[in-house]
Specification:
The chain is mainly alpha-helical. It has one domain. The chain is built from 13 helices and no strands. α5 crosses α9 and α8 runs antiparallel to α13. The chain is globular, with a radius of gyration of 19 Å. The two termini are 27 Å apart.
Length: 247
């Protein structure tokens, strides 16, 4: 436990002292601010501000374009950069279990990604300060759903990062996997058979648009997102263990 806490603190400190990470954070704030203002300027949202969370967190470009790409860019340094710099093997031979290494790096990334969502929350607080009527049940629900999806995308990015020291392939592979998780169910959700039912049960924007961002806490969506995150963390652990036999 002590080794886990030490590694977690080390990873959090590394995030807060990385210029690349803060450049990434700046781009996230800029793009989300522009997207927020565009949505806010639409007539439907101006007439009913309760539509803002579903548009932003559910069917908007934040979920479809930005959210799949940014977590893998954040997670490339967790394993791929260590592999490239030659510091991964000493870490894996240190007196700390592989599962603790995976969890410490993952939870450090999750904690830092809360800053990304803090900037989005600030936009809603600014509207509140200007006496705009805010539906905070939908806002907090949308934020919770978006954070759970981002934690899943961090887990996929962590798994992609564990495969080697090529940073481009690690970031691109994680983003590609995230886009597949988004778009593949969307292609089949209108099917009337079992494939359509499966697609509707795994379509991430539906969880956000019709559940969290509507102010509803869907226990199935929570369990699914947490289970998928756990699956990719397990796959990351398997990859680290397999390095002892297959470099």
């Amino acid at each position: 436990m002590r080794a886990f806490a030490a590694l977690w603190r080390k990873e959090v400190f590394a995030f807060f002292t990385s210029p690349f990470v803060f450049v990434l954070l700046g781009f996230w704030f800029l793009l989300n601010g522009l997207m927020f203002s565009v949505i806010l300027d639409t007539q439907a949202v101006q007439n009913d501000l309760s539509l803002l969370p579903p548009y932003l967190f559910g069917s908007g470009l934040l979920v479809w374009l930005l959210l799949p790409a940014f977590p893998p860019l954040l997670s490339i340094r967790l394993f791929a950069e260590e592999h490239r710099m030659g510091t991964l093997e000493p870490l894996l031979t240190a007196p700390i279990r592989d599962v603790a290494v995976v969890l410490a790096k993952y939870f450090a990334a999750c904690v830092f990604f809360l800053l990304f969502w803090g900037g989005v929350l600030l936009l809603f607080l600014l509207l509140q300060l200007h006496h705009a009527p805010m539906d905070w049940a939908r806002i907090w629900g949308g934020m919770l759903g978006a954070m759970l999806v981002s934690f899943l995308f961090l887990a996929t990015g962590l798994w992609a990062s564990s495969w080697g020291g090529n940073l481009v392939l690690a970031a691109g592979g994680g983003a590609a996997l995230n886009y597949l998780l988004l778009f593949v169910p969307a292609l089949f959700e209108l099917d009337e058979g079992w494939l359509g039912r499966l697609a509707r049960m795994t379509h991430l924007p539906n969880f956000l648009d019709r559940g969290f961002a509507a102010g509803l806490l869907d226990s199935y969506a929570v369990v699914y997102l947490l289970s998928m995150s756990a699956l990719f963390l397990f796959l990351t652990w398997v990859r680290l263990v397999s390095r002892r036999w297959v470099p």
